[in-house]
Amino acid sequence: MSREPVIKVRNMTAGYDETVILNNLSFDIYEGEIFVILGGSGCGKSTLLKHLVGLIPPMSGNIIIDNDDICSCNEETFSNVLKKVGILYQSGALFGSMTLAENIALPMREYTNLPESAIQTLVKMKLSLVNLDGFENHLPSEISGGMKKRAGLARAMALNPKILFFDEPSAGLDPISSIDLDNLILHLNKVLGTTMVIVTHELDSIFTVAQRVIMLDKRTKGIIADGDPKHLRDHSQNQFVKQFFNRLPSQKDMTGKEFT
Amino acid sequence: MKTKLTPNSHYSIKKGAGDTTVLQLNGRIDTESSDKIIKGLIRTFKKRLNTKLIVDLKNVNYLDDYGAMLLVEIKKLITANNGSFTIENAGDEVNEMLESLNFSSLGRQDPFTRERSPNIFIRLGDAAISYFSDLKDMCIFIGSVCLALLYTLRHPRSLRVNDTIDYMQKTGVDALPIVGLISFLLGLIMAFMSSVSLQQFGANIYVASLVSLSMVRELGPIMTAIIVAGRSGSAFAAEIGTMKINEEVDALFTMGFDTSRFLVVPKVLAAVAVVPILALFSDIFAITGGLIVGVGMLDLTANAYLTQTFKTLTLFDVVWGAFKCGIFAFLIALIGCLRGFQVKGGAASVGQATTSSVVSSIFLVILSDSIFAVVLRYWS
Asked: What is this model's ipTM?
């Protein structure tokens, strides 16, 4: 794997209005790796993701995607950067008025000059990639939550982006769908070399897919751990990190015994 | 291999051994390059459909699903016209990719098309069925709201007072500026237009009668109702519709709440309570508008104008106007909520419900106003 950073975050401070949620954050995401952002509820994982894809500008600092600083570049560069990223939203965010095929074909129709039959072939391929063969003409309201998520993934990958962002991919999925999705992520990463940035707190999923993680903390408003998740689980000295990876409760359990 | 026919950095076409044609692809065949070369390739092969094509992938170092799509498209074109299509010299990675995409079976199925709409009889039948089920929904809804209202009458403590007051503010107080402004301008315009004719007969003073009577009896309530339909009826529909999509309505139901009592009653009661008051304000603003024209342009004194106004209006007129507005408010709130509950699916459906709530409530307002006019005519 080449060690070329594809996303560089430098001294970024993020938050809403007056409240700072993440303070002075710096990290790199390398090309072709599966990178997981994790942390407890409310620590700013989703906020960080929204900043990385340019939905919210940071309070200060820089975010550099593929050598373009998305905080200070012009509109044109920014829309070029957006073509290099695909995002899978928590509940798929499919457009309700379009069929699955139309949802997936939308970016292809907008951004490429492919003939219609080629687009149809591609849509079929993308749908079969996420195991949704035959659902071309279904509307998002007619399929289940897990299927919506997979269809959302097919749409996010419509243009084979360099970087894929996932917002809690396994939330609300049954264990089988969840592991299927994890395998799909690994498969895509292998065959297409796509960089994956995943926000999650599903432990199983983290140990299956993650090559490198950063862990955010609510109190310090920054990164408290980074590295290989299995190594962190077994060797971290930090109390919170240990608790997180080993599923230990934060307080005494119901029987009154104290965990150490 | 003899002649080079189409030189391009990504592909070249050569004559191969025997009567074959060789398409040599080079480098990365990915999203970008496929997009660039597909149209040219298809144009080229459309000119010679009946070929034995060999695709040489020797120099391809990367191929993704866009590249596979490119091959599928050419294959479809050639094989549909009795040509033959073979792939040669594919590297391991490329082969793996093609295999994982199930290349050999791709392009065999027919392309999908959007389902065509069925014939006219089926559509007519569908429309009739949906019309009647709509009617049924409406009856059930009105029934449940009536029951909920009766229940609230008998158990006044079950009313969600805070919600009701909140809706009163949103429907009434917040609408006051726009209702006032529009009524004021309407009074002004009516006085102005009627004065042109009435002045010819020296009947300036009757401008006051005309403005006050028509505004208090008819236009005031109708204008107020239309504004409320646009402001609040639509808001009710959008609010309940979004709640429906977010499964909040389901949550209320499963928590054991009566959705009509919880969502509809506060809105209906609030609207019925404040819209008549809005109508009274509208009367006052309209008369003020007429007064300004009367005093400013028609040489009437304010005193004369107002005296004439009070001479024309009876208490019954004012109460009748307010009463009508109460009925209008009931209809608007009811329709707004009904349309909200009818939302199914996604965001587009919320938009539809909002539009339909405004259109049907304005229609119902005008319709019931006509009925009131007829009733009043035969009653008195």
From this structure: 0.73
